[in-house]
Design goal:
mainly alpha; rod-shaped; 62% helix
Length: 106
């Protein structure tokens, strides 16, 4: 953007006030990055809980996938913890399903 009074170019999305020249802070970017990937976290823990009692192969694999997506999109620590618990839930749910019904599918 060209400033006709000063003869210089100004950035359109810069963090400097166009009227007074003071530095402004952008708070929207930081708050939106914390909310990024919250769906993966919620679905991951929900799938983990469901995989312990119902269709562990389906919901366990879904929980592991959500843990990996949480690791990539939101937080590496939370994603690692979720992936570990999801894999554990997949194994325990499969063993519990096999003990109760004799099959790994239900």
């Amino acid at each position: 953007m060209f400033n006709s009074s000063g003869g210089s170019y100004e950035g359109v999305n810069s963090n400097i006030c166009q009227t007074c020249g003071s530095v402004t802070f952008q708070h929207e970017a930081s708050s939106s990055s914390k909310k990024k990937g919250i769906t993966y976290v919620i679905l991951g823990w929900l799938f983990f809980a469901i995989s312990l009692v119902f269709m562990p192969l389906l919901f366990g694999v879904g929980a592991v996938f959500m843990g990996i997506m949480t690791f990539c999109e939101r937080s590496q620590v939370h994603g690692s913890i979720l992936t570990f618990f999801a894999a554990t839930g997949l194994i325990l749910g499969s063993l519990f399903s096999f003990m109760v019904s004799g099959t790994f599918l239900i």
